[in-house]
Amino acid sequence: xxxxxxxxxxxxxxxxxxxxxxxxxxxxxxxxxxxxxxxxxxxxxxxxxxxxxxxxxxxxxxxxxxxxxxxxxxxxxxxxxxxxxxxxxxxxxxxxxxxxxxxxxxxxxxxxxxxxxxxxxxxxxxxxxxxxxxxxxxxxxxxxxxxxxxxxxxxxxxxxxxxxxxxxxxxxxxxxxxxxxxxxxxxxxxxxxxxxxxxxxxxxxxxxxx
Length: 210
Prior knowledge:
The strands form 3 sheets. The protein has a 3-stranded antiparallel beta sheet with strand order 1-4-6. Strands 2-3 form a two-stranded antiparallel sheet. The chain has a two-stranded antiparallel sheet with strand order 5-7. It contains 10 helices and 7 strands. The protein has 2 domains: about 90 residues, no CATH class; about 90 residues, 434 Repressor (Amino-terminal Domain). By secondary structure, the chain is mainly α.
């Protein structure tokens, strides 16, 4: 929360997702289907059977060779590879007669699809552009206040107004609530401490018991 004047800008310290899990179902589908199409039943040790409308093995035949159900292999070839074990991937690789490079590529596709999104939390600092907005407000105190009452950024007048809060020797950004309730100077800083304390409690996020 940006406090000062009439400007309101969201704080930039939210949790973000970096690139992790990849939707590569199309690539998986094309890779497995192309490898299945190049193998004849004779190469796989199967009887040629009836006349085929498409080249290569049927999905049912690959499933039999890999020791999995037809429905399961059909889902796999459609790109649903997340969570598949290495043993099953090896069985599919053998059924499709993949070479070492192709086997490695299949495992790479599986790992990319199964990777969990990684979270990255930005530091307590605000974007330079947001700090410039604060600094441009020279005729009134202005500050950024987060939901837990952190003060990650202010302009000069804002820092002067909350100067005692910024003197806390604790890790992390200055925090109004921590100063108000835990610092010996908190009660002297707020003229009406009871009212200010009630306000801080009301603003702090509440987590009920499960």
